[in-house]
Design a protein that fits this description.
This protein has 327 residues and is mostly helical. It contains 9 helices and 3 strands, in the order αααααααββαβα. Helix 2 runs antiparallel to helix 5, helix 3 packs parallel to helix 5 and helix 3 packs antiparallel against helix 6.
Length: 327
């Protein structure tokens, strides 16, 4: 359901991109402004990435199959990487065109109409970008977040261009047109490279430390007596699905059903707090003699050592592949 809603939202963004491109090209035709032309060039990227993002959302919504046992979610990272790359390339093209423009300053016509038209596109882009980012974060869609940030960056560059056009309107300093284009091209390049960096992190299964720490804090807060320790905790993101696996140490004498109940408790706790998009694989370990010293179970009839100290779970000790024990 959420995936289909994201696809519909991306369709609106793609259609809006085409409309905004037409408006900016109209503004450039009226004014012959270099900065408006560069803004229009970025809108061409918006249109391309809008449809690339739409296709990636369609693919990521497909169910898992034999060839893709973890689903198709990672295609969103690929889409975001393409988008970030195109954004950065556009920034360099803008700088090149602006430098070329310094040697052949051209008159700008109907600048007031250009200001109005470009300002309208900035407002539309900002609100589209804001809602795309919010929806992307809420549904864990890397593609929507990347698209939204791109649209917001486009808004800031467009506002800068509008400011430059206003200055030119009152001062007749035509060289400002190229300067403003170069300045905001730098912002475009920085944003594009940041999107690429984030996308590569997802493709390379880089751990989401912030999210992982929230999971550890939750499990520590709701920890049960039979959960003696938790280690080898891993978190990977596949599209909007969080894949979490770990080793859970429980009393060695629990039978299979009892140990499975403890696993179910952990899974229910995590899903209740992080949503149904969490996929968990928990391996149970039986406790060993050294576990007695850190085990808080009060009614254990096979305890070999007195309890000494409970080891609280942290990101550092939950991540390591070692059962917890006192030195």
């Amino acid at each position: 359901m959420i995936a289909q809603q994201n696809i519909q939202f991306q369709k609106r963004i793609a259609i809006a991109g085409v409309v905004l491109l037409c408006i900016k090209m109209w503004a450039w035709y009226l004014t012959h402004s270099l900065s408006i032309l560069t803004d229009a060039m970025e809108s061409i990227v918006n249109v391309i990435t809008g449809f690339v993002g739409l296709y990636s959302l369609y693919l990521s919504a497909l169910p898992r199959d034999k060839n893709h046992p973890y689903g198709h979610g990672k295609v969103e990272f690929v889409s975001a990487a393409i988008e970030g790359t195109l954004i950065s390339i556009t920034g360099f093209i803008i700088i090149y065109e602006a430098i070329q423009g310094f040697s052949s300053a051209r008159a700008i016509h109907e600048i007031d109409h250009g200001i109005v038209l470009v300002s309208i596109t900035a407002l539309i882009n900002y609100f589209l970008g804001y809602y795309a980012v919010q929806r992307g974060k809420r549904t864990s869609s890397a593609s929507l977040v990347a698209t939204g940030k791109h649209l917001q960056t486009d808004t800031y560059t467009t506002l800068g261009i509008v400011l430059g056009l206003v200055l030119i309107y009152f001062t007749d300093l035509l060289w400002l047109d190229g300067v403003m284009a170069i300045l905001f091209a730098g912002i475009i390049i920085f944003t594009g490279l940041r999107i690429v960096r984030s996308s590569l992190a997802g493709i390379m299964d880089e751990s989401d430390t912030e999210q992982l720490n929230k999971v550890v804090e939750l499990l520590q807060e709701k920890r049960k007596e039979n959960w003696i320790d938790m280690h080898n905790l891993r978190l990977i993101k596949f599209g909007r699905t969080l894949h979490l696996d770990c080793h859970l140490t429980v009393p060695w004498y629990l039978n299979v059903n009892e140990a499975h109940q403890e696993v179910d408790s952990v899974e229910v706790l995590v899903r209740d707090n992080f949503g149904e998009s969490v996929e968990m694989f928990i391996h149970t370990d039986g406790c060993l003699d050294f576990s007695c010293k850190v085990c808080t179970k009060s009614d254990c009839k096979v305890r070999k050592f007195d309890f000494v100290k409970r080891i609280d779970w942290t990101l550092e000790n939950a991540y390591t592949n070692n059962k917890h024990k006192l030195e």
